[in-house]
Backbone:
């Protein structure tokens, strides 16, 4: 397992509609959390400037942009995002797009993470997309594409983490969303797993949003999840 500081292994998703709400949550979490995800909702409401501010405060930033466009556009977008100084950036798991992003990043820049299959998707969604591949097959296909393209990791459910680890060893980071502690509602997550199960399966980082956002004491909830990560890492 990679040597990752415990607190960095929890990424809190700032899935709120405004920067003011995001800042309020960051204040409540204080030193308990070092890593934040800024997704599409917040990106279009001042989240890019917030990312710069949080970096200035010593936090790490995962920009969940899920880039997907023609090969001529993606390198330029990746290059501009790299200038923001963010730590993680997501790219759609389409092989040409991944290669284009790697070219655009050049030396240094954020770690590029390929999106495999969203944790809100199941077998019926794969059929809707017109593929005969199972979720697991698609995840592994996109993990191989990420490895071949020179990406740093993948976004994948804890249910497929063990298979990805067997495929790639430590050559790919595994960042796992769709995390729900035992007894917590899964909401729209069809492939949710517990923090312990994800880490034991090989995940390096866990992305947690609603479970922390809905808590009366977000810092305490974050500490509980970190404790579960620590216990699974022994």
Residues:
């Amino acid at each position: 397992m990679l040597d990752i500081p415990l607190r960095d292994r929890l990424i809190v998703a700032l899935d709120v509609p405004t920067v003011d709400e995001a800042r309020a949550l960051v204040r409540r979490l204080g030193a308990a959390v070092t890593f934040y995800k800024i997704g599409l909702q917040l990106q279009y409401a001042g989240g890019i400037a917030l990312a710069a501010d949080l970096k200035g405060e010593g936090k790490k930033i995962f920009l969940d942009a899920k880039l997907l466009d023609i090969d001529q556009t993606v390198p330029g977008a990746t290059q501009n995002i790299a200038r923001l100084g963010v730590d993680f950036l997501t790219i759609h798991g389409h092989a040409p797009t991944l290669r284009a992003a790697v070219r655009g990043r050049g030396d240094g820049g954020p770690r590029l993470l390929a999106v495999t299959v969203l944790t809100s998707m199941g077998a019926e969604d794969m059929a809707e997309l017109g593929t005969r591949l199972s979720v697991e097959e698609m995840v592994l296909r996109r993990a191989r594409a990420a490895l071949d393209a020179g990406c740093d990791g993948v976004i994948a459910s804890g249910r497929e983490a063990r298979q990805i680890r067997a495929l790639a060893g430590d050559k790919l980071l595994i960042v796992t969303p769709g995390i729900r502690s035992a007894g917590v509602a899964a909401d729209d997550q069809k492939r949710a797993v517990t923090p312990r199960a994800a880490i034991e399966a090989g995940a390096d980082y866990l992305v947690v949003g609603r479970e922390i956002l809905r808590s009366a004491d977000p810092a305490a909830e974050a500490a509980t999840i970190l404790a579960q990560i620590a216990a699974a890492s022994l």
